[in-house]
Amino acid sequence: MSLESDIKSLVESVNLELYDTSIVNENDETIFRVSVVSKDMADGKRAGVSMDACVELTHLISPLLDVTPPVSGDYRLEVGSPGIERKISTIRQFQLCIGENVSLLLKDKQKIKGLLTKVEGSKIFLELDKEEIVVEFNDITKSRTYFEW
Description:
By secondary structure, this protein is α+β, with helices and mostly antiparallel strands. The protein has 2 domains: 3-80, GMP Synthetase, Chain A, domain 3 (2-Layer Sandwich), CATH 3.30.300; 91-145, SH3 type barrels, CATH 2.30.30. 23% of the residues lie in helices and 43% in strands. Strands 9-8-7-6-10 form a 5-stranded antiparallel sheet. Strands 1-2-5 form a 3-stranded mixed sheet. Strands 3-4 form a two-stranded antiparallel ribbon.
């Protein structure tokens, strides 16, 4: 098994879903970031992730990383929610964002904003002004969720 699939199993053991893992460098420090979302839905949207759940997950993942470090050298483990506004880069991430507002930039430079209603295969379905728009995943160059204040 790969490190990511091992982490995914640990995340699912505490009733969460793995959104993403990444290695970032901030202020001369290497951070191994594990982003998770809740499996629970409330009012058609994903529930939040509690700080207690992140702490519990950190304690579960840390021993795994002692055996299989994600990077060579020193790093810090950070477990948390990906946030309200986040990058979407995979079909799986689109599936985890159903019910949220998304902004897409297409290969033809067209920009689309709408409510993500479903994902079927490689097709992304958005509702925009009460009209359904279907976008092929491979036509998207950038995508992210956004929050209207």
